[in-house]
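Per reviewer request, we include the raw input and output of the structure prediction for the construct analysed in the revised manuscript.
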Amino acid sequence: MFEAVIFDMDGTLTVLTLPLEAMRRDTKDIYIRRGLPPELLDPADGISSSTLKAKEYFLNNGMQSDEWDRLQSEVDEVLSKHESGAARGARAIEGALDVVKRIRQKGFKTAILTNNGREAVNLILGQLPLDPLFDIIQTRHESPSPKPYPEGLMHILERLNISANHALYVGDARIDGVAAKRAGIEFWGVTTGETKADVLKSAGASNVFDSLSELFAFLESYDVGQQC
């Protein structure tokens, strides 16, 4: 039986407007300018996988941890500019916030875990009534490590005082599924972002839905079934 539903933000609750390709390109460009061999990066690498490869390369080739932290700050600044630009036009996916209200009315705790930075999320909170709908809204700046690392989800579980087997993570991207699997949390995917159903399945989604409304209808019957 689930006690908490944790949501991704972009593409799950809000319309995906992030310039993801530009963000991925700029991240790679920063690492390459600092000396990362371009051939180590694959065109399919996203921000997280590019960063993982860069960290391994640089730390194995003499970069000190404090220098790596400064490089990460440079990347974070570039990402935050992209995110803040997109956040100024934030819109909720049709019906998404109503679904969250209904989930809370059923007695579930709710939270957001996003890889967006705090600056962008605060801009979104100024435009959309998200605060009253969630017990926790956690950005990458409050997470020990960003998705696909599991620590962000584990930190939310600790704050909610919920065990992993009583939580559900809902997201629209492969990294959401990977983070959930590593944290031992069930993952349900939605195709309201940039990722297709088969990719979400391959990332570990036990169920995939075309909307949060469909997910809620299934959640009601699923959770009742878990109690029987």
